[in-house]
Amino acid sequence: MTWIWEKLDTFLGATVVASAGVAASQAQAFMVQYVQRLGGHLDEASSHLNNVQNGLRYKLMSDTVRKELKTDAGGRVADLQAAYHAIADANVLVKPFALLRHADPQMLAGTWHDFVPALPATIDGYTYVAMGMILGFILYEVVKLPVVILIEEPRRRKFRRRG
Predict the structure, then answer these.
(1) Of 92, 91, 88, nearest to 129 (Cα)?
(2) Which of 4, 41, 98, 149 has its C-alpha lying 20 to 30 A from 155's C-alpha?
(3) Where are the domains of the chain?
(4) How far apart are CA 32 and CA 116, in angstroms?
(5) How high is the mean pLDDT of the chain?
(6) Measured between alpha carbons, how far is 32 from 40 in angstroms, rounded to an integer?
(7) By three-state DSSP, how is residue 162 classified?
């Protein structure tokens, strides 16, 4: 009977570790897709700022209105650039935290809605797979520990009599 439990433990452990690795790789794929979406928004905002600064339609507006539009557009570009560089230029270990810190909720929801699962074949992707597998292994062992303690027979200590 012990053999069956050992094989079941090995199978469950491998399943948890593999699942955690795949999930971590999907987190990396999600971050890549978010940065791509963020770059698209940045390009659009930069184009809009350029139109406000140089477009004929905006030059015909009053200086006050144009200055307000230019300030708004410039602020949007600055915010998007800061978020883009904070996430895209972050170290592989810091990138998930940079994403959480600088994520725009609406853009995050749009990325999630359009997310296409992928298995990235990059060093970053492999790093996330390895980290996910290690965390999955640790999680499995932590969850398994109370079960093992309950199932194992309590060990009895042998006391020697002093005589």
Answers:
(1) 92
(2) 4
(3) 2-148
(4) 11
(5) 85
(6) 13
(7) coil
Q: Is the dihedral of CA 75, 78, 84, 90 positive or negative?
A: negative
Among residues 121, 131, 142, 42, the alpha carbon closest in space to that of 83 is found at 42
DSSP string, 128-147: HHHHHHHHHHHHHHHHHHHH
Instruction: For residue 5, give both structure tokens.
Output: 């439990």
Record the pTM. Answer: 0.69
Does residue 133 contact residue 18 with C-beta atoms inside 8 Å? yes
How much is the CA Rg of the chain, to the nearest whole Å? 27
121 compared with 136, residue with greater pLDDT:
136
Summarised one tens digit per residue, pLDDT across range 15-70 is 888 888 888 888 888 999 999 999 999 999 999 999 888 887 877 788 888 889 89
Q: How far does the chain reach from its first CA to its final CA, in angstroms?
A: 41
Rounded Cα–Cα distance for residues 71 and 151 (Å) = 67
Measured CA to CA, the distance from residue 107 to residue 13 in angstroms comes to 36
CA–CA dist 130, 126 (Å, integer): 6
